[in-house]
C-alpha cells in the first residue's frame, strides 16, 4: 500500500511540474527576454535527462519518469523557440521533429509510454499538415485523397511491423480514423460516390480476417467500432439525400441484421472465450459495440418514420411508445438474449430522451422515480449501466428546465451518481458507470464557462481535486485508472480556462509539484521502501540514447543561433496584413496573419516559390512578381535593384512564408486587433522571420 502511495505521489508531482512548465511558457511572459526563455528551456531538458541518468539503475520508477520528462521537455523547447521567433503555431514540423528522437528512444528503451507518445506525435504531425492552424490550404481532390491515404498507410505499416501492442493498437485505430476522414472530406469532392464501397469492402475483409482467420479479438473489436461508426455516418448521409420511407425501413432492417449477427457471433465466441477474464471483457465490449450500432440506426429510423407517417406531432406518443414498446419488454423479457434486451433498452431510452424537453415535469419525475428504483433493485449489470446513463440524462432535462444555474445542475447530477456509487460499494458491488458519470458532471462544473466564477466555482474545483486525490490512492485498480484519466482531463480543462491566469496557474502547479515530490521522497524514506533496481542498458543502447539526447541539444542550439543570426543580419521588410485571433495548443495566444502577398493568382499546383518584393513610396513592400518556382526562374519577370526575394511554399494560389503567426501575452489579443503592418527580417537566401506587428 505504501509503495503504491509513493508511486502515485511521484506521478502526480511529475504531472504538476510538466503542466506548470507548459503553462508558464504558454503565458508568454513579456518581462522575460529571449535569452532567459531559451536558457530555461535548455536547462529544463538538461535537468530531466541528467536526473534520468543519475537515477538509472537506482530508482526504476523515477528514472523512467525523468526520461519521459526529458522527451516532453524537448517538445516544449521546440514550441518555445517557435513562440519566441514567431514560427508557425502548431506547425507539423514541430511535431515531426519532436517525433524523430521520441520514436528512436522508444525503440531503444522499449518503453511503452514513449511508444504511445510517439504514435500521438505522428498523428499530430499528420493532422497539422493536412489541417494547418496558422493558414488555410485548399487541397485538390486527388492531393487530399493521396495525403490522407498516405497517413493511413503509414499507420498500417506501424501495425504490421511493430512488435509492441502499445504502438500497434493506437496506430490501428489511427489508420481507421484517417480512412474515415477520407470519406468525410469526400463529401465536398466526388469521393463520396465510390469511396464508401472501398472502405466497406476493407472493413468486411478485416472483420473476417481478425475474427475467423487470425482470431485477434482486440483488432476485431476496434474494427467493429469503426464499422459501426461508418454505418452510422453513411446512413445519415443517405437520409440527407433521400428522406423516404423505404430508406428508413431499410435502416431498421440493417439494425436488425447487425443485432442478429452480433448475437450469433457472441454465441459462438462465448463457447471458447467467456471462461477467461480477457474473454469476458472482450465479449462485454463487443456486446456494447453491437448495442450502440444497432440502437443508433434504429432510433434514427423510428424518428424519421414517425415524422413521415404521423399527421400531427405529439411527443407523448413517441415517449410512451418508447416505454411500453421497448423499455418494458426489455425489462420483462429476462429469458431473452442479453444483446437483444440491451439493444431494445438503449433504443427505448434514446427514443424517449429525444422528446423529453417537450414533456411535463410531472411525467418525467414519475419516470425518473421508476428508473431509480430499477437501478437500485435490478442485479443485472448491463441493465444497471444503461439505466444509470438514461436516468442521468432524464434528470438533467428536469433540472435544466427548472434551474437557471448550470453549475448547480451539474453538482446535483454529480451528487446523485456519487450516491449511487457509494450505495453499490456499500452492497459490495463494483459500479464504474456512476463513478464515471459523477466525475464527468463534477469536472464540467469546474469550468468557468458554465457561469461566472464565484464561490461555487471555487468549491467545485476543490471538490474535484479532493475526489481525484481520494480515488488515486484507492486499492481498486479500476477506480485508480478512472481517476488518472480524469486527472489528465482536469489539467487540460484548466489549461483552457480564462479566469485563472496561465502564469499564476504555472506557479501554483510548480509549487504543488515540488511539495508532492518532497512528500513522496519523505514517505519513501520513512517506510524504508526499496523499489526494484533496473538492469543497466547494454552499452550500445546507452550510447544510442546519449547520441539522441546530444542531437536534441545541438538541434535546439542551432535553431536558436540561426534565428538570432537572421534577426541580426536580415533586411527589414514592411508588409500589409489582416490579423485574426486563434490559439495554439502548446504555445498560447497568437495572432494569425494573412498578407496581401499570401495569394498569387498566377501560381498553380504546389511547390517552392521565390517572390520578389518591391518597396513603395509609403515604405510598404508589395508584390512585384514571381522570381522562381521550384528552383527555375519564372519567365517574364525582371528583377530590379532593391527588390527583396522571400521564400514561400505554395498550394495552388495560396502561398505560405512561415511568418503567419505572431505570439502575444495571454489575453492580450484584443490589443493587436488594429495591427495593419508586419515588420519582417529577410535573409539573403530568402528566409523570413517575423519581428513585430503594429498599426503603423
UniProtKB/TrEMBL annotation:
Record bears the keyword Membrane: yes
Key words of the record: Membrane, Transmembrane, Transmembrane helix
InterPro entries in UniProt: DUF2157 (IPR018677), GDYXXLXY (IPR025833)
Residues making up the signal peptide according to the UniProt record: none
Superkingdom: Bacteria
The keyword Hydrolase is annotated on this UniProt entry: no
One Pfam family, short name: DUF2157
Transmembrane segments: 9-26, 38-56, 65-85, 91-108, 113-130, 142-161, 168-187, 193-211, 218-235, 247-269, 281-307, 313-332, 339-356, 362-379, 431-450, 456-473, 502-522, 543-561
DUF2157 domain segment(s): 11-113
This protein's name: DUF2157 domain-containing protein
Naturally occurring in which organism (per UniProt): Geobacillus icigianus
Amino acid at each position: 500500500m505504501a509503495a503504491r502511495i509513493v508511486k502515485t505521489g511521484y506521478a502526480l508531482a511529475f504531472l504538476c511540474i510538466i503542466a506548470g512548465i507548459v503553462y508558464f511558457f504558454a503565458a508568454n511572459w513579456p518581462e522575460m527576454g529571449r535569452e532567459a526563455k531559451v536558457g530555461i528551456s535548455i536547462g529544463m531538458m538538461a535537468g530531466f535527462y541528467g536526473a534520468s541518468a543519475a537515477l538509472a539503475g537506482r530508482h526504476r520508477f523515477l528514472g523512467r519518469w525523468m526520461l519521459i520528462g526529458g522527451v516532453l521537455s524537448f517538445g516544449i523547447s521546440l514550441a518555445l523557440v517557435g513562440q519566441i521567433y514567431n514560427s508557425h503555431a502548431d506547425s507539423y514540423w514541430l511535431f515531426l521533429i519532436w517525433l524523430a528522437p521520441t520514436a528512436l528512444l522508444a525503440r531503444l528503451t522499449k518503453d511503452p509510454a514513449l511508444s504511445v507518445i510517439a504514435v500521438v506525435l505522428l498523428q499530430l504531425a499528420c493532422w497539422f499538415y493536412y489541417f494547418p492552424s496558422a493558414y488555410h490550404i485548399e487541397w485538390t481532390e486527388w492531393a487530399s485523397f493521396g495525403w490522407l491515404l498516405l497517413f493511413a498507410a503509414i499507420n498500417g505499416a506501424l501495425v504490421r511491423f511493430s512488435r509492441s501492442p502499445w504502438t500497434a493498437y493506437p496506430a490501428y485505430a489511427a489508420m481507421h480514423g484517417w480512412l474515415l476522414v477520407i470519406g468525410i472530406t469526400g463529401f465536398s469532392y466526388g469521393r463520396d460516390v465510390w469511396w464508401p464501397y472501398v472502405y466497406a469492402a476493407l472493413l468486411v475483409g478485416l472483420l473476417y480476417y481478425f475474427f475467423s482467420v487470425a482470431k485477434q479479438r482486440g483488432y476485431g473489436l476496434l474494427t467493429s467500432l469503426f464499422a459501426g461508426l461508418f454505418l452510422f455516418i453513411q446512413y445519415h448521409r443517405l437520409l440527407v439525400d433521400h428522406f423516404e420511407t423505404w430508406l428508413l425501413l431499410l435502416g431498421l432492417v440493417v439494425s436488425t441484421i447487425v443485432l442478429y449477427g452480433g448475437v450469433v457471433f457472441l454465441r459462438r465466441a462465448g463457447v471458447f472465450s467467456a471462461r477467461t477474464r480477457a474473454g469476458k471483457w472482450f465479449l462485454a465490449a463487443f456486446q456494447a459495440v453491437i448495442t450502440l450500432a444497432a440502437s443508433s440506426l434504429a432510433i434514427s429510423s423510428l424518428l424519421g418514420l414517425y415524422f413521415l407517417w404521423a399527421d400531427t406531432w405529439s411527443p407523448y406518443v413517441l415517449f410512451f411508445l418508447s416505454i411500453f414498446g421497448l423499455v418494458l419488454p426489455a425489462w420483462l423479457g429476462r429469458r431473452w438474449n442479453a444483446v437483444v434486451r440491451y439493444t431494445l433498452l438503449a433504443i427505448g431510452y434514446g427514443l424517449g430522451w429525444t422528446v423529453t424537453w417537450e414533456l411535463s415535469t410531472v411525467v418525467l419525475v414519475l419516470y425518473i422515480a421508476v428508473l431509480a428504483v430499477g437501478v437500485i433493485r435490478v442485479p443485472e449489470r448491463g441493465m444497471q449501466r444503461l439505466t444509470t446513463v438514461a436516468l442521468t440524462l432524464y434528470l438533467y432535462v428536469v433540472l435544466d428546465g427548472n434551474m437557471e444555474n448550470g453549475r448547480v445542475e451539474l453538482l446535483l447530477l454529480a451528487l446523485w451518481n456519487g450516491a449511487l456509487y457509494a450505495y453499490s460499494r456499500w452492497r459490495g458491488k463494483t459500479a464504474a458507470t456512476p463513478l464515471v458519470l459523477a466525475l464527468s458532471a463534477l469536472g464540467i462544473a469546474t469550468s468557468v464557462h458554465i457561469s461566472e466564477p464565484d464561490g461555487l466555482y471555487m468549491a467545485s474545483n476543490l471538490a474535484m481535486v479532493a475526489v481525484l486525490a481520494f480515488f488515486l490512492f484507492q486499492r481498486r485498480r479500476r477506480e485508480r485508472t478512472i481517476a488518472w484519466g480524469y486527472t489528465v482531463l482536469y489539467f487540460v480543462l484548466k489549461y483552457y480556462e480564462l479566469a485563472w491566469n496561465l502564469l499564476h496557474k504555472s506557479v501554483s502547479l510548480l509549487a504543488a509539484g515540488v511539495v508532492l515530490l518532497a512528500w513522496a521522497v519523505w514517505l519513501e524514506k520513512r517506510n524504508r521502501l526499496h523499489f526494484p533496481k533496473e538492469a543497466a542498458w547494454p552499452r550500445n543502447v546507452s550510447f544510442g540514447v546519449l547520441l539522441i539526447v546530444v542531437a536534441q541539444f545541438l538541434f535546439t542550439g542551432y535553431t536558436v543561433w540561426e534565428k538570432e543570426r537572421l534577426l541580426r543580419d536580415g533586411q527589414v521588410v514592411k508588409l500589409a496584413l489582416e490579423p485574426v485571433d486563434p490559439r495554439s495548443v502548446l504555445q498560447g495566444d497568437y495572432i494569425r496573419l494573412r498578407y496581401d502577398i499570401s495569394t498569387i493568382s498566377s501560381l498553380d499546383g504546389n511547390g517552392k516559390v521565390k517572390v520578389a518584393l518591391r518597396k513603395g513610396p509609403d515604405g510598404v513592400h508589395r508584390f512585384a512578381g514571381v522570381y522562381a518556382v521550384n528552383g527555375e526562374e519564372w519567365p517574364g519577370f525582371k528583377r530590379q535593384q532593391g527588390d527583396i526575394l522571400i521564400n514561400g511554399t505554395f498550394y495552388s494560389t495560396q502561398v505560405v512564408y512561415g511568418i503567419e503567426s505572431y505570439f502575444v501575452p495571454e489575453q492580450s489579443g484584443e490589443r493587436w486587433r488594429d495591427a495593419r503592418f508586419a515588420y519582417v527580417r529577410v535573409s539573403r537566401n530568402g528566409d523570413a522571420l517575423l519581428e513585430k506587428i503594429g498599426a503603423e
